[in-house]
Amino acid sequence: MPDPRETGLALDPKYDASGLITAVATDRTTGEVLMLAHMNAEALRLTVETKEAHFWSRSRGALWKKGETSGHVLHVADIRIDCDQDAVWLIVDPAGPACHTGERSCFYRRIAGDRLVPAE
Amino acid sequence: MPDPRETGLALDPKYDASGLITAVATDRTTGEVLMLAHMNAEALRLTVETKEAHFWSRSRGALWKKGETSGHVLHVADIRIDCDQDAVWLIVDPAGPACHTGERSCFYRRIAGDRLVPAE
């Protein structure tokens, strides 16, 4: 039987045991994956309402607006949700580097066999 | 002190308590996010070695080669890893729809307020 969570148009996020879903952000212009993080229900609600990315920090155990201290806000142009509603895709215009290391994207290294190399 | 996991060129994935990292696959041509799934160490190793995406199915508790029954393999052109090495980004050429629903991407719905709408 078809699963209404997969086929329907009701927003019904499938939070995990910790109350979280996964969120991936890509750059609207370049298509580059910028970062991957997690959201609880409040982070998702705030992201939808304010069109600025909010996450849940698992290490700090706190709600977190991306860029609240750095100014490197992610302006959200579009939000998609996947088939089983346990992941969202944010299409964003970043106000600065997305990574806390200062790199544009957190994915700044390529896996080459059993080593890493700079991605560019 | 700089964390060598973040700044170095040693592959040192940070698996979670279940032995998994998150993997996101994007289409090399369109930039579209196709799917999000999880990998254990063996899935990552097989993906790197064969250049075809392998995952760990949390629901089935089994290693899973994407497309092993459907034929909709994801051919991996590039693999990136993020700053804290708990997520990988696969840049792929898909042999068919990535979603089990038959959609090209699992992210076929947009969040519009408290509802979903078809993404295209």
TrEMBL record, chains A, B:
<keyword id="KW-0028">Amino-acid biosynthesis</keyword>
<comment type="function">
    <text>Catalyzes the hydrolysis of the adenine ring of phosphoribosyl-AMP.</text>
</comment>
<dbReference type="GO" id="GO:0008270">
    <property type="term" value="F:zinc ion binding"/>
</dbReference>
<dbReference type="GO" id="GO:0004636">
    <property type="term" value="F:phosphoribosyl-ATP diphosphatase activity"/>
</dbReference>
<feature type="binding site">
    <location>
        <position position="106"/>
    </location>
    <ligand>
        <name>Zn(2+)</name>
    </ligand>
</feature>
<feature type="binding site">
    <location>
        <position position="83"/>
    </location>
    <ligand>
        <name>Zn(2+)</name>
    </ligand>
</feature>
<feature type="binding site">
    <location>
        <position position="86"/>
    </location>
    <ligand>
        <name>Mg(2+)</name>
    </ligand>
</feature>
<feature type="binding site">
    <location>
        <position position="84"/>
    </location>
    <ligand>
        <name>Mg(2+)</name>
    </ligand>
</feature>
<keyword id="KW-0479">Metal-binding</keyword>
<keyword id="KW-0460">Magnesium</keyword>
<comment type="pathway">
    <text>Amino-acid biosynthesis; L-histidine biosynthesis; L-histidine from 5-phospho-alpha-D-ribose 1-diphosphate: step 3/9.</text>
</comment>
<feature type="binding site">
    <location>
        <position position="99"/>
    </location>
    <ligand>
        <name>Zn(2+)</name>
    </ligand>
</feature>
<dbReference type="InterPro" id="IPR026660">
    <property type="entry name" value="PRA-CH"/>
</dbReference>
<protein>
    <recommendedName>
        <fullName>Phosphoribosyl-AMP cyclohydrolase</fullName>
        <ecNumber>3.5.4.19</ecNumber>
    </recommendedName>
</protein>
<dbReference type="Pfam" id="PF01502">
    <property type="entry name" value="PRA-CH"/>
</dbReference>
<dbReference type="GO" id="GO:0000105">
    <property type="term" value="P:L-histidine biosynthetic process"/>
</dbReference>
<keyword id="KW-0378">Hydrolase</keyword>
<dbReference type="InterPro" id="IPR002496">
    <property type="entry name" value="PRib_AMP_CycHydrolase_dom"/>
</dbReference>
<comment type="similarity">
    <text>In the N-terminal section; belongs to the PRA-CH family.</text>
</comment>
<comment type="similarity">
    <text>Belongs to the PRA-CH family.</text>
</comment>
<dbReference type="InterPro" id="IPR038019">
    <property type="entry name" value="PRib_AMP_CycHydrolase_sf"/>
</dbReference>
<dbReference type="GO" id="GO:0000287">
    <property type="term" value="F:magnesium ion binding"/>
</dbReference>
<feature type="domain" description="Phosphoribosyl-AMP cyclohydrolase">
    <location>
        <begin position="35"/>
        <end position="108"/>
    </location>
</feature>
<dbReference type="GO" id="GO:0004635">
    <property type="term" value="F:phosphoribosyl-AMP cyclohydrolase activity"/>
</dbReference>
<keyword id="KW-0862">Zinc</keyword>
<comment type="pathway">
    <text>Amino-acid biosynthesis; L-histidine biosynthesis; L-histidine from 5-phospho-alpha-D-ribose 1-diphosphate: step 2/9.</text>
</comment>
<keyword id="KW-0368">Histidine biosynthesis</keyword>
<comment type="subunit">
    <text>Homodimer.</text>
</comment>
<dbReference type="GO" id="GO:0005737">
    <property type="term" value="C:cytoplasm"/>
</dbReference>
<feature type="binding site">
    <location>
        <position position="82"/>
    </location>
    <ligand>
        <name>Mg(2+)</name>
    </ligand>
</feature>
<keyword id="KW-0963">Cytoplasm</keyword>
